[in-house]
Amino acid sequence: LQGYASEMDNPNLVHLIPSSLQNKKEILFGNLPEIYEFHNRHVGAAVVLRPRVLLIFLKEIENCIENPELLARCFLKRKEDLQIYEKYCQNKPRSEALWRQCGDSIFFQECQRKLDHKLSLDAYLLKPVQRITKYQLLLKEMLKCSKNSEGTAELEEALATVLDIIKSVNDSMHQIAITGYEGDVSELGKLLMQGSFNVWTDHKKGHNKVKDLARFKPMQRHLFLYAKMLLFCKKREENTDGHEKTASYSFKNSLKMSTVGITENVKGDNKKFEIWYNGREEVYIIQASSVELKNTWISEIRKVLT
User: Where does the DH domain start and stop, copy by copy (predicted)?
Assistant: First the structure.
């Protein structure tokens, strides 16, 4: 934030900023200032961006060295605050796309030289994503050492909280890649689950040919389960400028959760379940990759339906 973001407002360097980066600071850095503030919250706004400022969240964790059973409380009382990592990760694909366009510019080279950093900015922009996963590793290690001792229950709750945030981050990263859906996904309620399945369809009205063919060859579909809607998408992978493949999800159809029914077991395959619509006028046979995954989805769908 000091060596790069602030330097974008430095009049001596403004001529080095590439045109593709103009007025896009918030895309490149996302809500990194908000994450920084979270770790600095009680220090006061006047010292934001001052080097080596006291990090409050870190300090709280360090205070647990003598009383490790108190560690979980640091996470539990900041349950809501930690959601800022989800916001950061949602923006990460946009940030990376922008970096690919302008990361080799003289402006960034000059900033890196002044900081005497061996790594370029993109390595540091990855840190918040890595940090949220390191929290869960810390809590897992703590749990290994604290079986049936004071604070174990709180540690388990804290770990569940962090894992839930990581799941939300992962789900939201997929959600932003949905294309072709004409509505607003933010109006569909919370994204509860997402994942890839084999899907067969069976329609009572017409489509007889399709019905016969569909019995044999499944469609590959990526499902997004929201509180109000179930979306069926087709996953597409595209190469981006010679870099790693990025997935997008092309919208195919949707079912309102208020009008669907579910059959938990399909004869002949314990990994399959059915979702049907309008009194079984449309039936979707869905095959999960494992019985465990199938049961998790059924459980979530049941919660929505009830």
Answer: 1-172
